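Many introductory courses stop at the sequence. We go one step further.
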Amino acid sequence: MRAGSLLRRNLNPSDSTIMKLDAIDRRILEHLQRNAEIQVADLAHQVGTSTSSCWRRIQRLREAGVITRQVALVDPRKVNVGVTVFVAVKTSRHTSEWFERFRATAESIPEVVEFYRMSGDIDYLLRVVVPDIAAYDSVYKRLTRGTDLADVSSSFAMQELKFTTALPLDYA
């Protein structure tokens, strides 16, 4: 299985795998979403439980798939990919063969960091990070080469007003 395959999620709201979380679980997740490197003893103190109870809860959240992985967040400007482009794609072809080819193409382009199938006026939405317009042009050419697309519309983000990887937990 390719790494890109691990990132696919079904965004169906009727997914029955939702886990009910109590207040301590939610506080643990709030802290871990801000800093996954926090020591378990410090986390336990902050959420008001024992270290062993906190550790068991974290393990249960991992086993249940609530915590899927831990990553390092990298400043895009420091690694020269500070330009964000949102790419809206429309197609007139909706066969599984076409989709598999398009998905493989999008997954093979490292600058494509998010990729969604959409409802509404566009069929797919991609978030692309690049150093500049010339680099985006190269991504655009790779994306459209050999893929039958009805329309590709690119919007360059002028200013990042909010960015977070932390999910709201009030619904859990």
